[in-house]
Fold this sequence. Notes:
It is a single chain. The chain has 101 residues and is mostly helical. The protein has a domain at 2-70. It has four helices and no strands. The chain has helices at 2-7, 20-57, 65-68, 81-96. The termini are far apart.
Amino acid sequence: MWQDWTGAGFPPGQFWHITLREYRVIMQGASARFDRERALVQYQAWLSGQLTAIATHSPGSYPAPEKIIDTGNGRRAAQSDDEIERMIRFMHTSTTGEIIQ
């Protein structure tokens, strides 16, 4: 268990201060993170291969950078204070049944 803990990148000293249940939850989260990272690397490898094939065999149909690179311009605007307050009121009412005045 200690080898898995340190192999996942966690500080060795913290291992001795957690319960078995905490260990399981933390390691499940780490495993999910590694799965997401692996899937991303596989997707990037596939995309690189596809773009290389397009560039080699039909460079005219190579996509513009704006189509494949996310610049973050499509992000929605930050919520206003009123929107945040409405969302908090909604979440409170939906979980407790109480209406905040």
